[in-house]
Design a protein that fits this description.
Distance between the termini: 38 Å
Helix content: under 10%
Number of helices: 1
Strand content: 25-35%
Number of strands: 11
């Protein structure tokens, strides 16, 4: 079973590489019946990504052949705000430093109406660009890159757009 999962992941990775796609094994979904305590496999997360679901902090990890969200939670008296556990109550005007996230730096969250708000950044966020950086500071690299028209637009290339790959923008033949 383990050899089959490894072969499946390798096949998916090589296929993705050959087609210019991302090299994640997120489509490999092994039979998890042997371990019912594992969270379900998901298609929309990346290793190291955090998110808030209600008041629960969750962390994405690649375990047993696929990506999964793991609940980490916040301690009592803390709330999950923008992928970070912060005190649930605060004194008006108090501030907390925000940890760097992607290309966002020197962030501060301020207390208003007794709760901490979102981070205000000295540097970032910016529109995502195809540069292997998290420009929009959402925890994922190059995930919202807007395709551009390729320079060559004649014949079979009419309407061709770029696709962001780990080596940069690549032009694809139009459909």
């Amino acid at each position: 079973m383990r050899d089959t999962m490894i072969l499946t992941c390798l096949t998916l990775t090589l296929t993705a590489m050959a087609c210019g796609g991302q090299t994640t094994a997120q489509k490999a979904k092994p039979n998890d019946s042997h371990n019912v305590n594992l969270p379900d496999c998901v298609d929309s997360c990346a290793e190291g990504l955090y998110r808030c679901t209600g008041n629960t902090l969750e962390h994405c990890r690649f375990v047993e052949g696929c990506f999964r969200w793991y609940a980490e939670g916040c301690n009592q008296g803390y709330s999950c705000v923008e992928r970070q556990c912060v005190p649930s109550t605060c004194t008006e005007g108090a501030t907390l430093a925000c940890p760097a996230r992607g290309e966002c730096r020197n962030g501060v969250r301020s207390c208003a109406n007794g709760v901490y708000g979102n981070c205000t950044w000295e540097s970032g966020p910016a529109l995502e660009s195809c540069d292997q950086l998290d420009n929009d500071c959402d925890g994922a690299v190059d995930n919202d890159v807007v395709p551009q028209l390729c320079a060559e637009q004649r014949g079979v290339c009419a309407g061709a757009q770029t696709t962001c790959t780990p080596t940069g923008n690549v032009c694809n033949q139009a459909n």
